[in-house]
Amino acid sequence: MSFSVKNKVALITGANRGIGKAIVESFIENGVIKVYLAVRNPATTKELEEKYGDKVSTLRADVSNTESIKQLAEKANDVDIVVNNAGIMRFASPLSEDIEAALANELDINAFGLLRVANAFADILTTNKGALVQLNSIASLKTFGDISSYCASKAASYALTQGLKEKLGEKGVTVLSVHPGPIDTDMGAEAGFEGAPAATKVSEGIIEALQAGEFLLFPDELAKQFETAYQSFADNIVNAQLSV
């Protein structure tokens, strides 16, 4: 189902930098009338507030805290689009001494965080026939040894996104799963990726994918290589109507 962002109200977690910030800017440039900036530290959104004035509103939110996200939904009860962008990456191989702690931390933010956001906003998005956008990763499809725990958490979040597509879709809510490769962000720099695509590749891709009614978005060149290899499985398994 085609979904236009024009004249909509959006909420973006982790909106203060990187991909989240790029989504804020692209949404406003493409007609979103208001964006809630959901961040742990409200002081980090001053630049966006100065640039966009009353088109943005900062709300304190912590996706690791269920009560915080419930309060967020109470304050942002007019949203049409929720973008769950907040996430973390720890460097931990399966043989690392801290692998269990890293995995627990990443699952709490990257997977349970998605559940907290989706459940808090489900009724609002159902009423408004809105959209839920989940930032996953190519790491949800392939594990890279030095970030194994991150990959596991993103595989979990992608599995949950598929479930949300089915259950929220029955209620008229559009769900989009976004799978970028390395992007030019602080996280990308920390991982040592140089010359990575700009975050606007992701933000503009989200708008186009929603308009096209797609479930999966592979926005950059590396991600599109994954898409080519994954397409048959996605068509025949992920997007197919299978009975179990």
From TrEMBL:
UniProt lists the family membership as follows: Belongs to the short-chain dehydrogenases/reductases (SDR) family.
Tell me the InterPro entries matching this sequence: NAD(P)-bd_dom_sf (IPR036291), SDR_fam (IPR002347)
Q: Does the keyword Oxidoreductase apply?
A: yes
Q: Which domain of life is it from?
A: Bacteria
Identify the species of origin. Methylophaga thiooxydans DMS010
**Keywords (A to Z) from UniProt:** Oxidoreductase
Write the protein's name: NAD-binding domain 4, putative
What Gene3D superfamilies would the database entry show?
A: NAD(P)-binding Rossmann-like Domain (3.40.50.720)
Q: Which Pfam families match?
A: adh_short
Q: List the NCBIfam families.
A: PRK08264.1-6
Question: What's an example of a GO molecular-function annotation for this chain?
Answer: oxidoreductase activity
